[in-house]
Specification:
It is globular, with a radius of gyration of 15 Å. It starts with a strand and ends with a strand. It has a seven-stranded mixed β-sheet, sandwiched between helices. By secondary structure, the protein is α/β, with parallel strands linked by helices. It has a single domain, classed as P-loop containing nucleotide triphosphate hydrolases (Rossmann fold), CATH 3.40.50. The longest helix is centred in the C-terminal third of the chain and has 20 residues.
């Protein structure tokens, strides 16, 4: 059985995006790739370019750093695979946004939309809570919010996968 909603977690360069892209291709559905990254510096532009170079040209790409619930709702249908890369960048975008207080409402809207999405949905996110507690207030808030978000999203997903060294470890649901 193919999972309808999959959450792929992993550290930086763990292979989570490649796994998500492979699962999207294997769905044999038209793919809409929802990119949440913003290119604020040269290093991030290089990361984005690497992701763009890997993606098939026929995939639809939507760049949306903030309004994730709205995009999911607008583009979901049973004949499509939606791939969101990545939730922690979306979280970061909100935490540094001039209207950061809107994040709680946006997270609630996203979590409300998740169970209503009829598409195959693949969500990618960085697992950052396996190390020491950061010293800075914003960094601690980021880790706390990411941890809460991952728990809430995992609850709504049929499959949850942790990637390490390019290897998938299924935490919930069927095999990869």
């Amino acid at each position: 059985m193919t999972s309808a909603r999959t959450l792929i977690l992993g550290g930086v360069r763990s292979g989570k995006s490649r796994l998500a892209e492979r699962l999207a291709l294997e769905s044999h559905l038209p793919v809409t790739y929802i990119a949440t990254a913003t290119s604020e510096d040269e290093e991030m532009r290089a990361r984005i370019a690497a992701h763009q170079a890997r993606r098939p040209d026929h995939w639809q790409v939507i760049e949306e750093p903030l309004q994730l619930a709205s995009v999911l709702t607008q583009h979901a249908n049973e004949e499509r695979c939606l791939l969101v890369d990545c939730l922690t960048l979306w979280l970061t975008n909100w935490l540094i946004h001039p209207e950061a207080e809107r994040f709680d409402a946006e997270r609630a809207a996203f979590l409300t939309a998740l169970p209503l999405v009829t598409s195959k949905l693949i969500l990618v996110s960085n697992e950052t809570n396996m190390g020491i507690i950061p010293m800075g207030e914003l960094s601690r808030r980021y880790c706390d919010e990411a941890g809460k978000l991952h728990q809430e999203v995992a609850h709504h997903c049929d499959q949850v996968i942790l990637t390490a060294a390019g290897l998938p470890l299924v935490l919930k649901g069927g095999p990869v």
